[in-house]
Design a protein that fits this description.
Elements: E1 14-17, H1 23-34, E2 40-42, H2 47-55, E3 65-68, E4 73-74, H3 79-85, E5 96-102, H4 106-117, E6 122-126, H5 132-135, H6 152-166, E7 169-172, E8 176-181, E9 186-190, E10 195-203, E11 207-209, E12 225-227, H7 230-233, E13 241-245, H8 249-258, E14 264-269, H9 280-287, E15 292-296, E16 298-305, E17 309-316, E18 322-326, E19 329-332, E20 336-338, H10 359-365, E21 387-389, H11 401-420
Parallel strand pairs: 1-2, 5-6, 5-10, 6-7, 10-21, 12-19, 13-14, 13-19, 14-15
Antiparallel strand pairs: 1-3, 3-4, 8-9, 9-10, 11-20, 16-17, 17-18
Helix pairs in contact: 4-6, 4-11, 8-9
Pfam families: Pyr_redox_2
InterPro entries: FAD/NAD-bd_sf, FAD/NAD-binding_dom, Ferredoxin-NADP_redctase_2
Keywords: Flavoprotein, Oxidoreductase
Length: 421
């Protein structure tokens, strides 16, 4: 099975030597792809791979190794080092801004575009790559203005260019660890010691992927088991059976996408019907594609293999009957949890960890509301004045790209109102 690579007639400036079943290599593959960095991928066992490693003093066990066209070599230790090495913008250029956006998904990017276009000195911090979960989507069909659909990668690229056009500063690979607010400004403390301050902030950190909880599955993460990574891994799956776990739109979109290259796509759904969580248009698409086989009322009960995933144990939820099937590729789209653990106790949350904002603060907290001012909170304002929330990180959100974009732009309007006071 061939690793991913750039077309031979379009030689990239970067070569990655790494084993396709290495979790570290999978992480690099995803990072480079999501940040639109073209590369040629070479297995260390291939003649070219052996030659490149030997020429630079590495052994097969040293991979992954990145080799640039100018001769620079890197054995990456973490995402920040990798981001700096490939030339991404990783350090804020100023100590103070008007607007600080944390998170580069649809809500964060909308906030950056609207903030910068309306004259606010705007900086956005993103840990991994611009686009968030939407950037990993193979096809978004119900986004207004795109009747033929649009991939998450294309939508992300357009948003990135639009933000740059208006002067928003996008900083990649900084992980926000804590937030401190005063009457004058908001400061985010990042891993590594970097601090970024602004007069107001918008939290758009979205949600973190849930992982499968079944014996053996964790052992094969990055070695046959992947989360929300259909676009980066699909070229490796050509002609194979692909198992997908999930019953919402992200899983359905992935199934449709994989059906164009895989021999067969088996969609495993815990519910008894796709209609429980999936949009009707997507259910109709799946029903029309013979390569997609839907198994409702089914869950993963275990995984096993050697150097990579080789077998899955499936369990029928109603009867408890189990079945072992050969499997090399498993992609899970089973939802996410709000990325709010980095925020302090001053932020009120609901019982699932989502940030409470605006009128929801009083609705949920009642007489014990932690809101500290005499004025009521603005619509998307958290319990920390001057700090707003938008998108999947916010309680009672719609979990849709269009809704996140709307909230990101609305948050900027509210920031203007806050700054005028």
């Amino acid at each position: 099975m061939a690793p991913t690579s750039q077309d031979e007639h379009d030689s990239p400036a970067l070569t990655v030597v790494g084993d396709m079943w290495s979790p570290a290599c999978a992480a690099i593959r995803t990072f480079l792809s999501r940040n639109e960095i073209a590369c040629r991928w070479v297995q260390p066992s291939d003649p070219t791979g052996r030659e490149l490693l030997a020429a630079h003093g590495f052994a097969a066990d040293d991979t992954p190794v990145l080799i640039a066209a100018d001769g620079r070599v890197l054995k990456p230790a973490d995402e920040e080092q990798l981001a700096q090495w490939v030339g991404l913008h990783t350090t804020p250029s100023s100590g103070g801004y008007d607007l600080l956006v944390v998170g580069g998904g649809p809500a964060g990017m909308a906030a950056a575009v609207y903030g910068a276009s309306e004259g606010l000195h705007t900086v956005l911090l993103e840990r991994w790559a611009i686009g968030g979960q939407a950037g990993l989507s193979s096809r978004i069909e119900n986004y207004l203005g795109f009747p033929d659909g649009i991939s998450g990668a294309v939508l992300t690229d357009r948003a990135r260019r639009q933000a740059g056009k208006f002067g928003a500063e996008l900083v990649i690979s900084l992980r926000a660890d804590a937030l401190e607010a005063t009457d004058e400004d908001v400061t985010v403390h990042c891993a590594g010691g970097t601090t970024v301050s602004a007069r107001a902030a918008i939290i758009a950190t979205g949600a973190t992927f849930r992982t499968l909880d079944a014996p053996g599955v964790e052992d094969f993460t990055g070695r046959g088991v992947y989360y929300f990574s259909a676009l980066t891994e699909a070229p490796l799956c050509a002609g194979s059976d692909v198992y997908i776990v999930g019953g919402a739109n992200s899983a359905g979109q992935a199934a449709v996408y994989f059906a164009s290259c895989a021999r067969r796509v088996i969609l495993l759904v815990r519910a008894e019907s796709l209609a429980t969580e999936m949009s009707a248009y997507l259910i109709d698409q799946i029903a029309s594609i013979p390569e997609i086989h839907v198994r409702t009322g089914t869950e993963i009960a275990g995984a096993s293999g050697g150097t990579h995933l080789e077998r899955l144990t499936l369990r029928h939820r109603r009867t408890g009957a189990t079945e072992e099937v050969p499997a090399t590729w498993l992609f899970a789209f089973i939802g996410a949890d709000p990325a709010t653990t980095w925020l302090g106790p001053g932020f009120a949350r609901d019982d699932r960890g989502y940030l409470l904002t605006g009128p929801d603060i009083a609705t949920v907290a009642g007489a014990d509301s932690p809101w500290p001012l005499t004025r009521p909170p603005l619509h998307l304002e958290t319990t920390v004045p001057g700090v707003f929330a938008a998108g999947d990180v916010r309680a009672f959100n719609a979990h849709r790209v269009a809704a996140a974009v709307g909230e990101g732009s609305m948050a900027v309007m509210l920031v203007h109102e806050y700054l005028r006071d």
